[in-house]
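Journal club prep — side note

Before the paper discussion, L.F. wants everyone to see what a predicted structure for a comparable chain looks like in token form. Sequence:
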Amino acid sequence: MAIAWLTALKVIPWGDVIEHAPKVLSAARKLLDRTPAALPPSKDEVQERMAKTLTDLAEQNTRLVNAVEVLRVRTRILMLTTVLLGLAVLGLWLR
């Protein structure tokens, strides 16, 4: 396992990493300065978010069930069509 780490450390272009480090640091500082310190959400906010999430999940589940039902009907139609075409081909072949 130590050999894999040593190989990985040898492959990394450390000159490029050191060259770009100040740019990464300044971008990180700008990002931290731009985002305000967030207060922890209150219990009511958490409950509202959970309720909204559950509502969204229930709606998605309903749409999924409806889509599965449509696919089930289409599959039955496809199976029936396949059987009818098979019988037609068999009838033409037996003539």
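L.F.'s comment for the group: The two ends are 72 Å apart (CA to CA). Keep this in mind when we get to the figures.
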